[in-house]
């Protein structure tokens, strides 16, 4: 178990080690765009910093945090060490080298195209190669989540998979689908152009492929947060989850409804037709369902905990919650 | 599975604070409320799209971005504002790194105006403050948006999609003049308010 914890912790170190400088860059970008005086007023530096900020926040922090969280959830919810430790460390190494490659290229000023790429703007192929390794390397993690869940099921025939493991596997499948957009765009459109083997870029196709990844990146960090809501908070508050079935339903809904959701970022684009945009409006709205379910389940779970601790009356249970528990305070406030 | 450890998430609380059948009942009630909320929101979308005749820029019209300056409607002499035989106005613009061509266009007030834009290089954006005009300009496609201006005055149109290091300096103007002050153009004439 110690080796599983170390694996998860190394992922967190990379995630938060890069998160902090990216926060500082964000503050500087805010100064640059405000009437306040900003140090180093230079548009080259501004767009390089914007690219680094976006790349770290959207790809590096998200991917490394979700991977580390996934390994931690696997070990704790299944109550046994993560299987495929060697593959996990190889994945970590691939993702880390991709991160360093992309970051070095941005800092050298050779990749000021923002994390959304905007082809036919072109950066150094080292930047795209780095992002490709980072996102591609996380597919090893996706495979490991599925393998760990399948192995546990084989060893426990007939028993339901623990909710946390069920949910992290749904997250892995969601990410596999979501990342396919950016992987295909990089491999099929951007890298050939950046390497000079093609001279024409299909911009409409590139934007459409990227939209598959763009919004779903949000779910890649939202799902770990929801897993914490469903599995850590009820226990930390001293109660129980209101309904296990609703929890599983929520994660299945997220998996299904997040598939087309990125298309709403293309509503002002000329390469998508009216009817398709109209349809996508509805598909985007369906994501409200799992969110509304979660609001209900988590509030109900906290109420159970509050009443079990002696809270009485309509709102008395709120005060009875163990607010001194960091898990309860942080997650309840984040709702 | 008798030898399985009990799932802590499903343990029964002392005193039966929430009986199982109560869980099922409240869940079903909440499901109905949820679906009702979603149905209302979707109905609002359908009704407003129909009553406001919402048409996001979606004409899906292809153009060869390599030759558009040589032939077709986006040659230099055809850019700017044209008056159509039916009295409406058509504005043709090119968005390129880092300017709009022409950088100032004039249109008559209280007149249907159609903007047609394309890009020879990278992705740009086209937005007019206080109006419903907002579209991406994607190389290889012609973006078309329709509007009409009721208030004469000057509107700024910044590029609102990142297009390179000069992006923040890329913007242009639309000058709306009362209809009677707008020049009488023949079918082939084009006008703009770029200082000559």
In short:
The complex is a heterodimer of chains A (335) and B (196). Chain A is mainly α and 335 residues long.
Uncertain segments of chain A: none
Q: Provide the domain count of chain A.
A: 1
* Fourth-level CATH superfamily of the largest domain in chain B: Cupredoxins -  blue copper proteins
Q: Spell out the CATH superfamily of chain A.
A: Cytochrome c oxidase-like, subunit I domain
Sheet with most strands of chain A:
none
Shape of chain A: globular
The CATH class of the largest domain in chain B turns out to be: Mainly Beta
Average pLDDT number of chain B:
88
In terms of DSSP E residues, the strand content of chain B is 25-35%
What would you call the shape of chain B? elongated
Structural class of the helix and strand makeup of chain B? alpha+beta
The DSSP helix count of chain A reads: 12
- CATH architecture group name of the largest domain in chain B: Sandwich
**Termini separation of chain A:** 31 Å
How much is the radius of gyration of chain B in Å? 27 Å
Say what the CATH topology of the largest domain in chain B is: Immunoglobulin-like
- CATH domain class name of chain A: Mainly Alpha
